[in-house]
Structure formats: C-alpha cells, structure tokens
Amino acid sequence: MRKTKAEAEQTRQHLLNAALEVFYRVGVTRASLNEIAQEAGVTRGALYWHFKNKEDLFAALFEQKHAIFVSLLNDDVLDETEDAWTHLRHSLHELLRVLSQDEQQRKFCSVMNLKCERTETNQTITELVLRYHASSRAQIIRAMKLSVQQGKLPVQTDIEAAALYLESSLVGLIIMWISEPERFDLSATAKRVIDTNMLILQNGLLNE
C-alpha cells in the first residue's frame, strides 16, 4: 500500500531523528546509512527514498535544526528605530536558554562543534559547518553596526574584532558545557558571561 503524505513525512522525521542520534553517538564520518536506517527502524530502501546519501541527510538535518538557531538570532525585524543592542542581548540569552533545555538542540550543537570531522571527502558537510558559524556571526555583526549607529557602542568599535570576541566566548562556553554539562548551569552562566562581555564592548575596553 502506498504511504500517505503524512506517513512519508513521519518516516522522514524518524530518519532525521535517527541520524542525529547516530551522528551524536559515533560522529559524522563514522556514521553509516545502515546504522541510521536501523536506528529509525526502516529499510535502506526507505532511507534512499527520502535521501540520496549521507551528505543529503546531514544537509536536511542541518536545515531543520539550524533554522531554530537562526530564528532566535533573527535580526530581520530590526530597523534604525529599535534598540539593536538590547535585542542582541535578549536573543543571545534566549539562544543559550533553549540550548540548555532542548536535548535535541544540545546534541545538534555537539555534532556541529565536536563530532563533525573535516576531511577531503566530506566537503559538503564541511561547507555546512562553516555556514553554521558564519550565519550567527553575520547577525551579530549587523546588530553591532546598528548599535554603533544608535550610540549604544563607541564609534571607534572594531566590529569584526568585537563580534569575534563575543562569538568566541560563547562558543568556548558552549563547548565546555557540552563536554561537562554537570559542571555548571549553562543558561545562568551564559547570561552573566553575555552581560559582562557586552558591557566590556559597550564601555570600549576592547578598543584600548
């Protein structure tokens, strides 16, 4: 019997969930389509009906999970009349809060930062990892440029350096938490780190 559209979509989602579990467990390079199909409880034929290869499956998982991060950092609603600096602070707070509470997002973040080996044979996956980091960086940079225009950041602020400073502190904190989640409360700690680092930037201390 031919599957309904809803059943096909359910199978596809099972495969995406299974892929995340396998990527998280063994890493992207070592993960096999057989293992992913078994994890999802489907045949390889069913997997190939939805995805042509591992790269295609990884890309679909990336688009789904990364969309959540992008929506949390979304600055498209900003215009010159809104407080971009406060918007950025609240967005970063919410991003880390969601990460601390959503197990699937935590696993996805772990895969992207720790379990996604860069090799000559997985160029497609490598490009997605770079895009993962570049998209959040671009949104931070845009918010900072608006903040300078609005007088929330000093005019002499080196935007690229400031974005790198803020991004690297958060990525480092996230990786530490992923490696040792019992060590500290990510949401509470991240809020203090974000507020402190944004105050440093606002006071121009990075420019000295």
Automatic annotation (TrEMBL):
Residues 32-51 bind DNA. Keywords: DNA-binding, Repressor, Transcription, Transcription regulation. SUPFAM superfamilies: Homeodomain-like, Tetracyclin repressor-like, C-terminal domain. InterPro entries: DNA-bd_HTH_TetR-type_CS, Homeodomain-like_sf, HTH_TetR, Tet_transcr_reg_TetR-rel_C_sf, Tscrpt_reg_MAATS_C. It comes from the Bacteria. GO terms for molecular function: DNA binding. PANTHER family: HTH-TYPE TRANSCRIPTIONAL REPRESSOR NEMR, TRANSCRIPTIONAL REGULATORY PROTEIN. This is HTH-type transcriptional regulator MtrR. It comes from Kingella negevensis.
